[in-house]
Amino acid sequence: MDNIRPIKTEADYDWAIAEITRYFDKEPIPGTPDADRFDVLAELIEAYEAKHYPIAETDPVDAITAHMEMANLSRHALVKLLGSASRASEILARKRALTMDMAFKLNREWHIPAEVLIVPYHLADQGNKDDKKAAARA
What we know:
The protein is mainly α. 65% of the residues lie in helices and 0% in strands. It is elongated. The chain contains 8 helices and no strands. Helix 1 (10-25) crosses helix 2 (33-52).
């Protein structure tokens, strides 16, 4: 494998991107040295990006909001799915956590991945409750 090297700097990263890009136009045949080189470059790039450009995990409310925007769904569509305008408002305002039933409906009807919907997230007033509890103990 010609001149493969660790990716330690942005210059190394730029070099690796340029090297792997040429394989996009003409995919290497599996089992060939070019295919092996492609795989090694892809692994090196992925490791560098994971370390230097981590992607934050999407919380359920952000996922719902993004889905609504991408699918051009109104708040009314969420109300219809969840069965209550106040419940939909509380979810979007992070005043109420999603229940398993809500997550199930969002997964089945809107195809939002379940693993995104069940991630724990902070509610809007959780910080205030924690502060009040701490003050009461003091």
